[in-house]
């Protein structure tokens, strides 16, 4: 019997808009896959690209970045900074041989809980189609990271 692959997705959400959209989706009992683990940031512009790479290298199969709509940021233009970083992250992943589609940027205001739930559902299906990300770390069902055995030919770079 083959098991259905259930991806692990880390979501970095803006405190002012998209985190509140996720909260609205929850209070309105809007169904979306439980595959996403949300991490609240004060602003999507605060997202350091290393957060995304750390999430992927620690076993996440995909990353969702959400923020306020362009022009509506509580911190003036920081969501434009998030957009530039998102494009940089996708370009870097492509150069590493990893599908850039594993990272998605969504603009969602606090009133768009339904839209955010739909985008999460779409991302989960897209990641499911891509399959698991085969990096050294893998998140187990209990949320713990289990490292796969490395071959002796690989040397650690310090």
Helix-strand sequence: EHEHEHEHEE
Task: Determine the mean pLDDT.
Answer: 88
Number of domains: 1
CATH topology: Rossmann fold
* Biggest sheet: strand arrangement: 2-1-3-4
Percentage of residues in DSSP E strands: 15-25%
CATH class category = Alpha Beta
The second-level CATH architecture is 3-Layer(aba) Sandwich
Outline of the structure:
35% of the residues lie in helices and 18% in strands. With 158 residues, it is of the alpha/beta class.
Report on this structure.
With 158 residues, this protein is of the alpha/beta class. The chain has one domain (9-147): Rossmann fold (3-Layer(aba) Sandwich). It contains 4 helices and 6 strands. The protein has helices spanning 18-27, 49-57, 78-95, 113-130; strands at 9-14, 36-41, 62-67, 103-107, 137-139, 145-147. The protein has a 4-stranded parallel beta sheet, sandwiched between helices. A two-stranded antiparallel ribbon has the order 5-6. Helix 1 links the parallel strand 1 and strand 2. It is globular and about 40 Å long.
Main traits of this protein?
158 residues, alpha/beta, Rossmann fold, 6 strands
SSE layout:
Elements lengths: L8 E6 L3 H10 L8 E6 L7 H9 L4 E6 L10 H18 L7 E5 L5 H18 L6 E3 L5 E3 L11
Parallel strand pairs: 1-2, 1-3, 3-4
Antiparallel strand pairs: 5-6
């Amino acid at each position: 019997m083959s098991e259905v692959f259930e991806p692990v997705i880390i979501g970095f959400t803006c405190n002012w808009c998209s985190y509140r959209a996720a909260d609205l989706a929850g209070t309105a009992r809007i169904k979306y896959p439980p595959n996403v683990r949300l991490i609240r940031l004060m602003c999507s512009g605060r997202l350091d690209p290393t957060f995304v790479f750390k999430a992927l290298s620690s076993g996440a199969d995909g990353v969702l970045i959400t923020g306020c709509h362009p022009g509506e940021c509580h911190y003036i233009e920081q969501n434009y900074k998030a957009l530039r970083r998102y494009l940089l992250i996708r370009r870097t992943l492509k150069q590493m041989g990893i599908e850039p589609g594993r990272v998605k940027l969504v603009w969602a205001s606090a009133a768009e809980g339904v839209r955010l739930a739909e985008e999460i559902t779409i991302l989960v299906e897209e990641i499911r189609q891509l399959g698991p990300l085969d990096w050294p770390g893998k998140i187990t069902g209990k949320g713990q990271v289990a490292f796969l055995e490395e071959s002796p030919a690989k040397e650690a770079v310090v």
